[in-house]
Specification:
The chain has 101 residues and is mainly α. It has a domain of 67 residues. Helix content is 69%, strand content 0%. It has 3 helices and no strands. α2 runs antiparallel to α3. The longest helix is centred in the first third of the chain and has 26 residues. The model has no long low-confidence stretch (mean pLDDT 85).
Length: 101
Amino acid sequence: MQTSQSVAYRNYLIILCMNIPGGLLAAFTVELKALGRKGTMSVGAFMTGAFLLAGTTASTSRQLLAWNCAYGFAGTLMAGTLYGASSLPCVAHPAGTGLTG
C-alpha cells in the first residue's frame, strides 16, 4: 500500500480530526456515575485493543484508514481520561523548590 505524500498527509489529517470527538466523549463519560474514570478507561482500553487488532484485517488503504480512525478515537478516549484524572491521585511536591508537603 504505497501512497503519495499528499495522500499520506490527507490521511493523517483525517485521523487527527477523528481524535477530537474521543477527547470530548472522555470529558462527558468521566462525569457519568455509571462509568466514571475507571469505566471510561476500561472501555477506552478495550476499544483501543480491539480496533488495533481489527486493523490487521484491512486489505485496502481505505479500510486501513477507517480502522486507524477508530483506533485514534479510542486511544484519545483513553488518553483524555488519563490526562484529566492523573492530577487527582498523584499528588506530588513541587520539585526543586524547597517546599515540603
